[in-house]
Amino acid sequence: MATTLPPPTARIGRHPLHAALAQFPFVCFTAALVTDIAYMNTASMQWETMSVWLITGGLVVAAFAVLAGIVDAFASRGMRRARSGWLHAIGTIVALVLAIVNAFVHSRDGYTSVVPTGLTLSILVVAILAISNWWGAELSARQTVGDRR
């Protein structure tokens, strides 16, 4: 039986703020990957511009999600001991650093702002966040559900 963790500190009502905010950057970075693929296939600048905005929006909301996650981690000794919490934190940090680099790569002019480096970074960010969010969801489920499995 897994350990039940205390509820998150940063929350609105019974809803954990970190879990709510973490979804927005993942969706933005995934949409940026889709627009990168569209740009690669069409060379239409609208797709490159959309990618820049999606990456930037994802990074802005990610900053708030990280703050909420830090509050939760420092408020709960049990969370700091949870392996999935550390895996989630490390994966998220790596993905966000790559996303920042990706924002700078996308800010260049021309086709090389996306192909191949921007597209590769977008793929890496989405893949790392998908795995990292899985670990975060596991931790969140133990917090909010009380491990009723």
Total DSSP E strands? 2
Provide the spatial order of strands within the biggest beta sheet.
1-2
Averaging pLDDT over every residue, what do you get? 88
What is the H-and-E element order? EEHHHHH
Radius of gyration: 17 Å
Description of the structure:
Strands 1-2 form a two-stranded antiparallel ribbon. It has one domain. The protein is built from 5 helices and 2 strands. Helix 2 (about 45-75) runs antiparallel to helix 4 (about 85-105) and helix 4 (about 85-105) packs antiparallel against helix 5 (about 115-145). The protein is mainly α and about 150 residues long. The protein is about 75% helix and about 5% strand.
Provide keyphrases for this structure.
mainly alpha, 149 residues, single chain
Fold topology:
Blueprint: E1 11-12, E2 15-16, H1 17-42, H2 45-75, H3 77-81, H4 83-106, H5 117-144
Antiparallel strand pairs: 1-2
Helix pairs in contact: 1-2, 1-5, 2-4, 4-5
Compact summary:
The chain has 149 residues and is mainly α.
